[in-house]
Each structure stands twice: as structure tokens, then as C-alpha cells.
Amino acid sequence: MKMITTGFLLAALFQSIVAIQSSEFMIREATIDEIRTAFNQNKLTSKGLVEFYIKEIEKLNPIYKAVIEVNPDAILQAEKADQERKANSPKSSFGIHGIPVLLKDNIATKDKLNTTAGSYALLKSVVPRDAGVVKKLRESGAIILGKASLSEWAHFRSSSAPSGWNARTKQAVNPYVATMDPCGSSTGSAISVAANMVTVSLGTETDGSILSPSSANSIVGIKPTVGLTSRSGVIPITPRQDTVGPMCRTVTDAVYLLNAIVGFDKFDEVATKKGSKYIPKDGYLKHLRPGGLKGKRLGLMRTYPSFGFNNDTETLNNFEKHFSILRQSGAILIENLEITNINYIYSLFNGEDIAMSAEFKIALNAYLKDLVASPLRSLADVIAFNNKYAKLEKIKEYPQDIFLAAEMTNGIGVLEKEALKNLTKASKYGFEKLMRENKLDALVTPYSDGSSVLAIGGYPGINVPAGYDKYGGPYGITFGGLKGSEPTLIEIAYGFEQATKFRKPPPVKE
């Protein structure tokens, strides 16, 4: 009898271990649709999902440095979501209800979390309200799991600091190849999603900071048309280019998240009023349809890295198979495109840094002055803080050259106006003319090489995993379009994703 009991207990223990492992395996890489199905079948709760991710963060974050803070109220939010679902609350029907989201640490939350852009300078500052996108997430029933790490000050403090470094968490690490650049400033948002420390995340982009880390960490990133999503409560670089967008493992998940955060916000009134006109009446999910590539006109340029493939043999060879897949899926590739006066157009991009430098000082000073509590109220205060406390806090001292250049500006003067005029010309006679003359639905670029073109004009882009190099390093492909073309870009990106399914999770860390 004793032997039977012992054997029974061992068998039960083994089955329990298998069940736990099976549960964890199902959660890892699980999509929003799969999670929602598990909710409805009572196989998973939001609380269980959050607890799983917190354990993964505890295990993996010491390696990857992708998360700055975990929300101490995340489990309470999850329990509330479970109760709402049990009561069939109207909110529980929303696509991201009960789904954990990590926010880049420049997106404000009016809760127990800090909003610091990775800097000690803003630690314990008090924001006046949730960021516009956070308000929409809460209204949709999403769970704010915490804050993702980033390149400090969204990579706008120092030109020599590496991507993914900030004072609070130090250097973020690519989960696929530790020596590979995690890229851009939304590094933690990308890494945490790639490594299954959260279901979905939000990043921000001024120039490449969603598209670039998405490419380097094998996830889907949507850089929306400027104004489609609110920037209120986001520590700014320039309102002219700043945008907030989804960073997820699949196009479908990214579209669920995009649906939740788009729309008008009175605290970002001018931009979101313009952006709202682009939102489809029934949202974006209907554009996730098979055959989305059929008949789409996709442009390819073989010159200039800001626009195309730059005649790089290795890059071209890597992407030739992708071009074949696009054609086989019904897309029409318009190749070897040329832009008239390309050298002149390309020279106009030099105005981006001039314009952003002045715009940053104006926008950051306004953000800091709006804080409920903060010892720092200007860019000058932040520079002084860094000079005074770097050694005290044992912060690695990267030069503040970008900050210092911005502090030397004095509003939008003659030089800045000329730069802004040149950027408008570059967009009008470069990208827009190319798209319209060739009747293109999207411009296709490798990795995130088209980010500057999309950035200066406020255009949207979607990056989709496209494979891995010989060292296992991920790379993506970007589809960029004219303002408001998100529905078309979603059809293209979804079509490519479904035809290829290149994405695979990073090596598991035990």
C-alpha cells in the first residue's frame, strides 16, 4: 500500500511538472487571440498571466536589462480584469482586455511607476496625468505591467552612448546574439517582447526608434503616422516627428494594440485632430486578411541607404528570396526606382538635426514645467544635474553633446526655419513624389533603412521579421507609405508575415 501511494505521488508530481511546463510553453509566444481563447475557456487568468511574466522578468531581466520597473499594482489590475470578464462586463469584450503591456519609460503613468527616460534626473518626479495612450489602454482594460528600459533620453543625450544604455538599468542586451546591437531607443520594449517577458509593448519613434529595434530583435513594430496616436505625457524630442506605436511578436497583436491607442486627445489636440481623419471607421483588424499582398505595388530602390538597398551585394542576396515571395503572393514589384535630383534631395536631410535640436529644448522645457513635482524644470537643469551627480551616483559619464547643442539654441530662428523648409522639400519632392508618380502602395527597405525618410515627413512604417544572419542575428523588412496608409501597410505586412513566418523565439535562458 505504501509503495502504491509513493508511486501515485511521484506520478502526480511528474504530471504536475509537465502541466506547469506545458502551461509556460503555451504562454511563451502566445498571441492575444490565443490568450483570449484561453481566458474564455477558463484555462488561463489575467492574474496567472501577469504572475508568469513577473517570474520571467525576475529570471531574465538581470541578463537582458529590458525592464526598469514592474508595476506593484499589476496583479491587482489583473484580478480586476478577471472579475470583469467573469461578470461579462462590456469592457471585457475589448481586444486587449486583461492583456499585460510594458511601456517605454518615456511614457507617463499616473501611478506608482516612475517616468524617467532612463535617467536619475527624473526619478520621483510626479506627472500630472496618464499619457494619452495610457489613458486609452486603461479604458480598454489592458494591464500596465511596468516600464521598459530605453536608450537614455530616447538616445538624445549623447552621440557616443551605445543603443540600449541608460543610467538606471545600464546596458540592454539583444536576446538573440548578446554582442549584437539592440538598436534604436525603444530597446527594452523590443527585447521584453522578443524574450517573452510580456505579451505586447509600446515604444516611441522620432527617427528609427521603433523600426530599428524591431528589426534587430525579430519583432513587429508599427511606426504610426504622426498624430494618429497621442504624444501627450510622452517625454518629447520633437512633436513634429514623435509618435507612439506597438511593438509585438505578430502583426495581429500589433494591430490589436494600435486599435486601442489611436484617436483624439485634447492634450495633443492639433496633431490628433488631424490624425483622427485617417482612422478607419471600423478600425484596423479588418485589414488582417489573407491575400493582402495581391495587386499591391511595392517600390524598390537600389541606391542610397535612406531610400533603398544601396547596391549592397550581401543585403541584396539576403532579400532576393523575399522579393520572390512578394511576387508569388501577388505583389507587383516596381524596381530600380530613381528620384530626380537625388543628391540635392539627399542633402536636404542635413536639416533634421538642426531642427530637432531647437525643437527638443522647447518641447522638453514645456514637459518639465508641466510636472506636478520635480526639482528640474528645464534642459539647463537636467544638464546641471548630470554634471553634478554623475560621479556621486556612479553613472558612467557619456558626454552630453546633444543636450549641450540643444541648450545653445534660442527658439526657431532663421537657421531652423530654413532647415524645416528643406525637410518639407525633401519629403515633397523625394518620398511623396516617388510614391505618387509610381502609384506605389509602399516603399520596401531592408532592416529599418528607410526610417529617416519616414521620420521627417511623419509617414508610417511597419517592420516585420525577415530572417536571421549566419550568426543568428535577426533582421527585418520595412514597408513604408504615405500619411494615413496604415490599412494598406497592415495588409502588406500581414501578407508577408503569413507567407513567410520567419520569426522564431530567442534561445531559452535557464
The number of E-state strands comes to: 13
| General shape | globular
Structural category is alpha/beta
Q: Can you summarize the main beta sheet? A: 11 strands, mixed
Helix content: 40-55%
Query: How far is the first residue's CA from the last residue's CA?
Result: 38 Å
Task: Give the strand order of the largest sheet, numbering strands 1, 2, ... along the chain.
Answer: 1-3-2-6-8-7-12-13-11-9-10
Number of domains: 1
Strand content range: 5-15%
The name of the CATH superfamily reads Amidase signature (AS) domain
Q: How large is the count of helical segments? A: 18
Overall pLDDT level: 92
User: Which architecture does the CATH hierarchy give at level 2?
Assistant: Alpha-Beta Complex
Radius of gyration: 23 Å
Low-confidence stretches: 1-25
- Find the CATH topology: Amidase signature (AS) enzymes
Q: Which CATH class?
A: Alpha Beta
Describe the structure.
The protein has 510 residues and is α/β, with parallel strands linked by helices. The chain has one domain: Alpha-Beta Complex (Amidase signature (AS) enzymes), CATH 3.90.1300. Helices cover 43% and strands 12% of the residues. The protein contains 18 helices and 13 strands. It has helices at residues 2-27, 32-40, 46-64, 74-86, 132-139, 152-155, 187-194, 211-216, 251-261, 269-276, 313-328, 342-347, 351-369, 379-389, 401-407, 414-437, 451-457, 486-500, and strands at residues 67-70, 100-104, 143-148, 165-166, 170-171, 200-205, 220-223, 243-248, 297-299, 332-334, 442-446, 461-468, 474-480. It has an eleven-stranded mixed sheet with strand order 1-3-2-6-8-7-12-13-11-9-10, sandwiched between helices. The chain has a two-stranded antiparallel ribbon with strand order 4-5. It is globular and about 60 Å long. Residues 1-25 have low confidence and may be disordered.
